[in-house]
Write a structure and sequence with these properties.
With about 80 residues, this protein is mostly helical. Helices cover about 65% and strands about 0% of the residues. It has one domain. It has five helices and no strands. It is globular, with a radius of gyration of 12 Å. The relative contact order is 0.19.
Amino acid sequence: MGLLNKIDHRADVMNRMAETLDVDFAAAIAEHPEAVREYRQAVLRCVACGHEGECTAWMAEHPHAAQAPDYCRNKDIMATLRA
């Protein structure tokens, strides 16, 4: 998988996690346009994560959750945006 395809794929995974956690990145960016940089950084953290299999399995078992799993590199930003 090429780098751009991997970035797109992981952006999809991260967005599914956001939906699971009831986090709306689009609303956060609309309210604070500078948050787009944080979104890009979050995608890159997801790209660098070695837990994709665990993550997708966790999301399949948890269609809605209050917080991301401990291994999630974006757990903090998700918690901040959820608040």
